[in-house]
Amino acid sequence: MVSQSFNEAEAQRANINKNANRIASPSVVIGLGSTSCQITRRLDEVSAGWTFSDRKSIGFLYMDTREATRGEISRSSRFIPLTLPHFSNLRDMRPWITECVPELKNLSLSREGALGTLANAGVAGRFNYGNLRGHIDATIEQVCPYYEGVTYLRIHVIAFLGGGTVGALPVLLAALAEARGTSYNFSVVLHLVLPQRGMSRDPETTYPLQLRNAYSTLQFLRAASGIEVGKSEYTGKDSYQITVYPDKIIDAPGPHFDVALLHRSPKDSLPVQRVHVARILEGLVADAWGTGQDWWARYHETMREANNNADARFGSISSREVGLLDGFFVQTAKQYLQNQWQTRL
Asked: Which of 133, 101, 130, 111 is nearest to 65 (CA)?
């Protein structure tokens, strides 16, 4: 499902009573990576003017390999640094390292190393898994107090498909699956920001790397949704395992996300991208009125009208969103191969 601008909602936003509650369902917004953290921060700043009740019903988590991101966000928000131990300590054959990077000689800490930050973020997410779980549990308990009988919430995960930090997405989804347990019932909405050639630092060098990261991430999402890569057949298996520090195996049962939204900036501009995605995110978080209320009503109606068990379980994801992800997966693969071909020529 490709995101569209909510222009028709601007009039409603201007006329709405400032004292009215915007949020009906508590939400946790997670920014994964520098680009996503900037989008999340914008929503954090906008929501500062909301009512106290709304502010209690929304929490923010920031995850990044950049320590500088900590100083850019609100002090009341939680920041999870995806840092690695000393490089020499990674030169062993521990499962939580090797399942992410089978050949350790290819692991580089440089920004655009042999595997880039994609593999580094995956290893860092596994190393900091305990910290990640602790912050997720604390944030959920903060916005959705179990002792008050509130057990349903929505998790919004924003990730730039072309970035390196998106390599920690499998670890994050596994942590959310484990945090759900038997106490909470929450839906996960993936906000996947698409790479665009005109927004790359170097279209001839950086853009192919972004396409590679997008290709790898979409391949994982297809497999995690029970779609066999290549044949695009539904296998019925939507669970996976990861090994985290210190050599602990985490079982991640699916479904891992209810709906995936693909966001494309209407203009090749980073400020426009941040505003565009943050505005859509605001509309979906504020689900008590206007656009957000209408969108979720249509979404749940689609689920009720699902014509098979797979559609009902995935929120019609096997027939709609995965089909679109499949199309974008093929498109990304073709662009990546074309860039590689041109580079070799």
From this structure: 111
